[in-house]
Specification:
The complex is a heterodimer of chains A (about 375) and B (about 190). By secondary structure, chain A is an alpha+beta fold. Helix content of chain A is about 50%, strand content about 15%. Chain A contains 14 helices and 8 strands. In chain A, α11 packs parallel to α13. With about 190 residues, chain B is mainly alpha-helical. Chain B is built from 7 helices and 3 strands, in the order αααβαβαβαα. Chain B has helices at about 15-25, 35-45, 55-65, 100-110, 120-125, 155-170, 180-189, and strands at about 90, 115-120, 150. The radius of gyration of chain B is 22 Å and the shape is elongated. Classes of the chains: A alpha+beta (about 375), B mainly alpha (about 190).
Chain lengths: ~375, ~190
């Protein structure tokens, strides 16, 4: 005789140590099995899209740092400025383009390190967190020497970057690049060879290729489901068109694949940084753009690859010095709703493992 | 001269020798005497357990402060995952109007004595989201009482540590029954 059970509604969050911010998940359970997961968002809605309509194009750069994905401030600046520069026809000098590429890849490293550390804590491996933050502090030091900030660097400006590299910075960056692959191997030793970790992530939370396309998943989540799509390759921006790098793609679509995609991406980022520092051209770092830049009437959509995926910025200008409308297509938002597809049918203990593997930032989801 | 204060030390003894002297001459001496208040405050200040509760960007700097380089464990600050075990709430990041009742409820769930650090400009006053914004609460002190404000956007981990040290100083001199003391001083005023 089958035991008759009733469905139970479980409320996770908004304050939960593993929800990576203020996400509320309404989980419907049948015994231990997940029937349905509904994310409830909006707990960090900072109305940044509306605020941008009342600030000049230069002031908005500071808002993209804070109001969007706060782990990858410069990737947001890049997404926004791509739109501004494309609409205004603002040229970026070659040195600035390469500097931006270096910074974006360092930002990807620091973002992935936070993801790996916090996911490690979620799965009970606290050591990884300490290891990852050790390397992250080194990257933040490098950022601080260039931009003056640890987390929010208003470094990219319309038409270039704010300041040139300080003396000796490239040597320190290269020293980090030499050291980092060894550190990456340490993480692999701690996690990839750990049977407890593998038991919790391998084969768990599968997102099939077709569902990933249907749900609009992007970035490492899509690439772990076998979709070979990276904006850096398909629509190259800055210096990515001239750099040779690989896009890691895995087929299985489970948590382990998402983990491996990001681990391989970190290796590729080091490769890009090293190549970009070698080929860094001399010259101007900022083209002559007036401070209160006015864009012509029109609209533009730009896309770039933030560490979380395909970041799109749709910008409408009515000819003034402030945007008429800015719409941000946030990668975390698309990936969050792919989560419902991944979690269906798994056990309640897998919720944390799956949620962590998607790497969402709630500031990016809610904006 | 009557206005001249007399030298309180009768002989040229070092302060520690004086203390030993006093203790040994007391009946049942050799016991270190102190106020219960001092001991309790010392214990409270040296083991502040914050709630792992991050709202936005400042939470990343808070995590960095817990990690290896800054290592808040050194000063007895160990994160707890539930408000029932915590006695410090670090409000790290901007708080929306939707989130405000939840922050209040978390604060109410914490046992007394409890303290709040407002970390960053957003939690303190709304920060960069002060103007033209319909969703962010302009300061967490509208919802919960704040003991220490840490400025910055976001504050560096050093600034957070400074805030915790300031809170420790505050705890070390507070009256034992702080609620009763506050009520009494309110009555006097």
């Amino acid at each position: 005789m089958a035991l008759r059970t009733e469905e139970l509604m479980l409320n996770m969050g908004p304050q939960h140590p593993s929800t990576h911010g203020v996400l509320r998940l309404v989980v419907t359970l049948d015994g231990e099995n997940i029937v349905e997961v509904l994310p409830d968002i909006g707990y960090l809605h900072s109305s940044v899209e509306k605020m941008m309509e009342y600030r000049t194009y230069l002031q908005n750069v500071a808002l993209t740092d804070r109001g969007m994905d706060y782990l990858t401030a410069m990737a947001n600046e890049e997404g926004y400025l791509l739109a501004v520069e494309r609409l205004g026809g603002i040229a970026v000098p070659p040195r600035a383009r390469w500097l931006r590429t270096i910074m974006l890849e360092f930002q990807r490293l620091s973002s992935h390190l936070v993801w790996l550390g916090t996911w490690g804590i979620d799965l009970g491996a606290t050591t990884v967190f300490l290891y990852c933050f050790r390397e992250r502090e080194r990257i933040l030091d490098l950022f601080e020497q260039v931009t003056g900030g640890r987390l929010h660097h208003v470094y990219f400006r319309p038409g270039g970057v704010y300041e040139d590299l300080p003396a000796g910075w490239t040597d320190r960056a290269l020293a980090f690049c030499d050291e980092f692959p060894g550190r990456l191997q340490e993480y692999h030793d701690l996690l990839t060879g750990n049977p407890i970790f593998l038991a919790r992530v391998q084969g768990v939370g599968v997102l099939p290729r077709q569902s990933a396309i249907d749900m609009g998943a992007c970035g490492p989540v899509a690439r772990a489901s076998g979709i070979n799509f990276d904006v850096r390759k398909v629509f190259p921006y800055e210096a990515y068109g001239e750099i040779d790098f690989d896009v890691p793609v895995y087929e299985a679509g489970d948590c382990f694949s998402r983990y491996m995609v990001r681990m391989d991406e970190m290796r590729q980022s080091v490769r890009i940084i090293r190549m970009a520092i070698e080929r860094l051209p001399a010259g101007e770092i900022r083209s002559k753009v007036q401070v209160n830049v006015k864009l012509p009437r029109g609209e533009v959509y730009s896309r770039s690859e933030s560490p979380r995926g395909d970041l799109g910025v749709y910008l409408v200008s009515d000819g003034k010095d402030m945007p008429y409308r800015v719409k941000i297509r946030a990668p975390s938002f698309a990936n969050l709703f792919a989560l419902t597809e991944m979690m269906r049918g798994w056990k309640v203990a897998d919720v944390i493992a799956i949620l962590g593997s998607v790497d969402i930032v709630l500031s990016d989801v809610d904006r | 001269m009557p206005n001249q204060p007399q030298d309180p030390i009768p002989s040229r003894m070092a302060p520690i020798e004086m203390a030993v002297d006093v203790l040994e001459n007391l009946p049942g001496g050799g016991v270190i005497l102190s106020k219960v208040e001092y001991l309790l405050n010392w214990g409270r200040a040296a083991s502040l357990w914050p709630l792992t509760f991050g709202l936005a960007c400042c939470a990343i700097e808070m995590m960095a402060a817990f990690a290896g380089r800054f290592d808040l464990d050194r000063i007895g600050v160990i994160p707890r995952a539930t408000p029932r075990q915590a006695d410090l709430m670090i409000v790290a990041g901007r708080c929306t109007i939707k989130m405000a009742p939840i922050v209040r409820r978390l604060w109410e769930q914490m046992p007394e004595p409890k303290y709040v650090i407002s970390m960053g400009s957003c939690a303190t006053c709304g920060g960069p989201f002060y103007y033209d914004n319909y969703s962010i609460l302009k300061g967490i002190d509208q919802v919960v009482p704040v003991d220490v404000y840490v400025p910055g956007c976001p504050p560096r981990p050093e600034a957070l540590i400074e805030g915790i040290l300031k809170l420790q100083e505050k705890i070390k001199v507070e009256p034992f029954r702080r609620k009763a003391a506050a009520a009494a001083s309110a009555q006097r005023a």
